[in-house]
Write a structure and sequence with these properties.
Order of helices and strands: EEEEEEEEEE
Number of strands: 10
Distance between the termini: 40 Å
Shape: globular
Structural class: mainly beta
Number of helices: 0
Helix content: under 10%
Radius of gyration: 13 Å
Strand content: over 45%
Strand order of the largest sheet: 2-10-9-4-5-6
């Protein structure tokens, strides 16, 4: 059974940082391109970033480029998202997912507020 379990969300002040993690199991993690998506209240899902299976190829949405960093540790079957200089509009539920799969975690809530 495929499982993707996110953690690391929480409340942070504008300008602050958070590091999200996504623990994967039930599939060969290192063989898949992975991504982070987010969904804010009342809005549709938004792609944030994705990373190649080997971790060298990364892409970001323009809205987060230069502030967010995606990475992965294939030995630990874990995907990460380092988020710096957070803005209030980053508040959303962040989920990890396998690209071109139906696999998606339940998500972790990120709230950016003073």
């Amino acid at each position: 059974e495929v499982q993707l379990v996110e953690s690391g969300g929480g409340l942070v002040q504008p300008g602050g940082s958070l590091r999200l993690s996504c623990a994967a199991s039930g599939f060969t993690f290192g063989s898949y391109v992975m991504k982070w998506v987010r969904q804010a209240p009342g809005k549709g899902p938004e792609w944030v970033s994705h990373i190649g299976s080997g971790g060298r190829s990364v892409k970001y949405a323009n809205s987060v480029k230069g502030r967010f960093t995606i990475s992965r540790d294939n030995a630990k079957n874990t995907l990460y998202l380092q988020m710096n200089s957070l803005k209030p509009d980053a508040a959303a539920v962040y989920s990890c997912a396998g690209v071109d799969t139906s696999w998606r975690g339940q998500g972790t809530q990120v709230t950016v507020s003073s």
